Amino acid sequence: MKKVFFLMAMVVSLVMIAGCDKSANPKQPTQGMSVVTSFYPMYAMTKEVSGDLNDVRMIQSGAGIHSFEPSVNDVAAIYDADLFVYHSHTLEAWARDLDPNLKKSKVNVFEASKPLTLDRVKGLEDMEVTQGIDPATL
């Protein structure tokens, strides 16, 4: 009886010691930046550029982009990130409400459409956006 108890105690002790071994599978610290994107196209482009160097996540999944309102968890994910990538205030009006507070935080904000300029179409240089397209010019 004492031998069985002793053997069981040894087996349990060895299992516990083996479970405490830290060198077997050390978890690598996350390198790079934590990036949060607003919807799938922004996620896909950011992930393609970033590769595996950064942790890229998307807050929207399945919701329509125009009617999307971020949840408390979505806003928390944005504030915990190093970089927030979204398309524009025009497409994502909810991002406008976050902007003043994000500028005060550690989060870098990238509005993806901001650096873009509209191309001028030959023959339509004088047309303003509010005029629309004249069918005679087509």
From TrEMBL:
Give the molecular function GO annotations.
Answer: metal ion binding
Signal peptide as annotated in the record: 1-18
* Sorted UniProt keywords: Signal, Transport
Q: Which SUPFAM superfamilies match?
A: Helical backbone' metal receptor
Q: Does the keyword Transport apply?
A: yes
Instruction: Give the GO terms filed under biological process for this record.
Output: metal ion transport
| InterPro entries linked | Bact_metal-bind_prot9, ZnuA-like
Q: Which PROSITE patterns match?
A: PROKAR_LIPOPROTEIN
Q: Which family does it belong to?
A: Belongs to the bacterial solute-binding protein 9 family.
Which PANTHER family does the UniProt entry name for this protein?
Answer: HIGH-AFFINITY ZINC UPTAKE SYSTEM PROTEIN ZNUA, HIGH-AFFINITY ZINC UPTAKE SYSTEM PROTEIN ZNUA-RELATED
Full protein name: Laminin-binding surface protein
Organism, scientific name: Streptococcus agalactiae
